[in-house]
Amino acid sequence: MRLPGRVACLFAALTATTLGAIAQSAPPSSNPATFYALRKDSIYESGCFAPCACPVLIRGPLRGGFRLTFTGSDGLFDHYSVEHVKWTVPQASGNLHVTGSGTYRVGGEFALQHQLSLDLQIDNNPPQHYDSGLVTPPTAFPAIDARISINGEYCHDTVFEVHARPVRDIQVNGTSVYWDAQPTAAGHDVVWGSLSTLRSSGGDFSVSVRGCLANDVTADAVPLSGADPAPGDGFFFLLRDVESAMPDSFDSGAPEQAEPSDDAIAASPARCP
User: Could you tell me the maximum CA-CA distance found in the chain, to the nearest angstrom?
Assistant: First the structure.
């Protein structure tokens, strides 16, 4: 069982209550490596694009994340390495698994531009190079929104529409759950649940989530309420951002996360609306 990175935990020992936090990322000011999670509107497409007339053969949601590390600046562009790409394309016939690495740069002399370049392997197929080209980004960094493809979306091609956001640290103390204030978001959701149930169910969030602690809150902290965990048990807290009325992912973007958690959390009757 592996928890998503956007998680804080409240533990109760047999003799005393103790506090702890688990987080997979750190603020950029203290750690140049930042985990990114894909938003729910990220898409995988494979098939025919203009000017060819055949329809897209395969299209589906894209889940997962990657690690972004600042590597330097050349005066015009800031350069980053993209590592530990671990994406999943859920399909009825079986999930596609995407792994790889590459580079990202953002900057420009007259106007802001960015370029995402990745070498990706889909299941056991040979790795291929995907590139967005140097284009004007639709959103400001640290958000990364880019379409990468093999052939520039010409005729038969495979395209990944990437919408990625940095993963926030979330922590817990005796009175509240709190998280990084930057980058800004329209709102935040926080769910909580039982660690012992999560463990006994083999990591099933649909049965271990117990409630919605925060729904579309604009603050960067929410008070804890209710009883402490029972001796030998503990609580977990998971955070997701909300942008333009669309919730992001509860996932961490870290390669250590075994499976996406969003579908299981959405299946819980105690989920945030």
Answer: 69
